[in-house]
Amino acid sequence: MTPTLVRRHRPSPTSPASRARDWAEIQERMLVPLYEAVYERLEVGPETRLLGLGCGSGLSLLMAAARGATVCGVDHDGRRLELARERLLPDGAPEDGARLHLGGPEAVQDPTDGPFTLITAFEPLLTAAGDAQALADALSLAADKAVQGAPVVLAGWGPQERCAASGALRVAARLADPMCAPARWRPSGRDDLENLALRAGLTPDGSGRVSCPYGYADMASAVRGLLSTGAFDAAVRATDEEQVTKELIEALHPHLRRDGTVWMPNVFRYLIARV
């Protein structure tokens, strides 16, 4: 499925709450082709018990639940998690319809429905170069809650030459101070996903690539969507939001089309590893 262009958004202060909403309303849907490809390949359905690490505002969990899966999600961003609750647990919905926890996999107690049969970590390398050991530790802890042989899905950027968003994201790397902003964005290496899986004690067992174009209704939506990813947070701390926004617009200009929309073709890569 190709993501549709999002509706226009008026500029507003980019507070943490606004960025969480921008992620849910603008940016998260760009990853729908990735979610669909993984779920189709792994035949996610009523027998699936899924744990989503970094579930964000819950779109990936919602899509799995629509296939009949039992879903559980964890995320360290409380604002995104509240939006996930709005999606997955509307007023009157039973709490066992989806379990959502603030934090990492340690927040999940023994699953009442049995061990998980699928673990997803769709964002370990999509935004910022986080602590690889911390990521590996989280994956290892999550794997302890899964059945033996369960798939664990990791995702990251594809080759830079096939990711039009790389130019915009390089703004984040250039403006962030490398001495005090270790979470600045960096491009994924060819073996990053495999190395992360091995460090977590998992066994790589196949991979794939998916086209995930970034399409925005206008430049303002493009800026808000990209800022919501967190990839630019270190750059904003090292400089200021006005400078980051100005240089981001310049980087996005080559992708601005005559009708005012912004379109950036991207390829993402996912790895399937086994517990």
TrEMBL record:
Disordered, as annotated region: 1-20
UniProt-listed GO biological process terms: methylation
Positions of the Methyltransferase domain: 51-128
Give the Pfam families listed for this entry.
Methyltransf_25
Supply one GO molecular-function term.
methyltransferase activity
> Cross-referenced Gene3D superfamilies, in alphabetical order?
Vaccinia Virus protein VP39
Ranges of biased composition (kind: Basic residues): 1-11
Query: Superkingdom of this entry's organism?
Result: Bacteria
Keyword Transferase appears in the UniProt entry: yes
Q: Which InterPro entries match?
A: Methyltransf_25 (IPR041698), SAM-dependent_MTases_sf (IPR029063)
Swiss-Prot/TrEMBL keywords: Methyltransferase, Transferase
Protein's name according to its UniProt entry: Methyltransferase domain-containing protein
